[in-house]
Design a protein that fits this description.
The complex is a heterodimer of chains A (78) and B (424). Chain A is mainly α and 78 residues long. Chain A has one domain: Non-ribosomal Peptide Synthetase Peptidyl Carrier Protein, Chain A (Orthogonal Bundle). Chain A contains 4 helices and no strands. In chain B, helix 8 crosses helix 14. Classes of the chains: A mainly alpha (78), B alpha/beta (424).
Chain lengths: 78, 424
Amino acid sequence: MSDTLEKVQAIVVEHLGVEADKVTASASFIEDLGADSLDTVELVMAFEEEFGIEIPDDAAETILSVGDAINFIDSAKS
Amino acid sequence: MRRVVITGLGAVTPLGGDLKSSWKNLISGKSGASSITKFDATDYPCTIACEVPLGEGLSANDGSFNASDWISPKDQKKIDTFILFGIAAAEMALKDSGWSPQNDEDSYRSGVGVGSGIGGLASIEKTALLLNEKGPRRVSPFFIPGALINLAAGQISIKNNLKGPNLAAVTACASGSHSIGEGAQMIKNNKADVMLVGGAEAAICPIGMAGFSASRALSTNFNNNPEKASRPYDRDRDGFVMGEGAGFLVLEEMEHALSRNVKIYGELKGYGVSGDAFHITSPSEDGDGAYRSILMAIEDAGINKEEINYVNAHGTSTPLGDEIELRAVERAFGGFAENLSMSSTKSSTGHLLGAAGAIEAVFSVMALNENIIPPTINLDNPSVETKIDLVPHKAKEKEIKSVLSNSFGFGGTNASLIFSHHYN
């Protein structure tokens, strides 16, 4: 398991109150994990804080699943 | 005419995490005041407050309050503490009433009205500091919906599927009473059959304590003896002690309640309202606003003055306000004043601002049902002479006919409620 996945999982579990095993790469924040639009804003903020990156609003709109988040974070860090 | 009865009660107060423990401690003459634990208040002019006792909550059955009994930890972070207290006390009241909408029509006819004096002050403070330190991109999307005053009513309606009128009276320390009175109007005017009404407050935070200290409203002479600080009518009183919590009542149209065959605690008979048009923080010196509010409530109730024998006073323990209210009550009741017992439960709970009128309405209804008048604790030496029994130190058994509850707020806003036994 990549370091990014682990950290993203922990953030999603904390913010959405879901079981860790539900937080798979293909899980959609809204459809599978019960987030609403405000939750997704907060998740993006938490990713920014955790990974020390900036996620512009237009990029944030494309982050719909756990996998999207991991891909964005990994490419922003590299 | 549609009549309004009370079928449910709930409370979270500095005296307990539920109504049962709050009431027991209230009539035992306990004080909810202690040194502030929420933050380091060492350098503040007032270092004491009446905080809600936190603990294991329902599982321990020790009268403590546990947020997780009422809302999941992840959702707790999205709301200010005043909303949390509101959600908890509202659920208690609703459960007590046994009312739960079974279909759309039930839901459309059930509303919510929750006042607060300041709303999410602690959240505003915390977020302003974060904004200053880390910039606008770190402000949570839940900040605004977690701090807005009407979001207590909003959250409670969502959790309980109540789709009727959804309101929030914001009248400083009269917010709770106005929410109850206006909720009753909704039922009387046939906009709803059931209204879950009350007030919620949680302003014991640095900016709240600093702000009320600056306006010279808080007690400062009893920092080393917190339980003695709230002393309405006593000559040594020097300001109020800040409290927090929430109080709720289920108001219900009488026939609606009778058809459910549930316990009816009493009837909300009268509601009076007025404005002082005098000063931003001080009551009008002649008590004119309070006097007119009381008279309007009595007239609205359609009862004789002698039928009221207990007054739950606003009585905040400020040097000016207590005596002005006392004189207004004496003037309103004239020769019948000598039949009155009048106590300030703020002597025990401190001043819950926008929740004060709500918990005091709950206590008034409890007094009516139990025939016990809660005491005015710490009243060692009344500052004035009066024919009215101020119920010093100890609770008193008395057959209560009707209760008047007063609330007055900054800005010169007044509300009076009258609760009576329910007779068909």
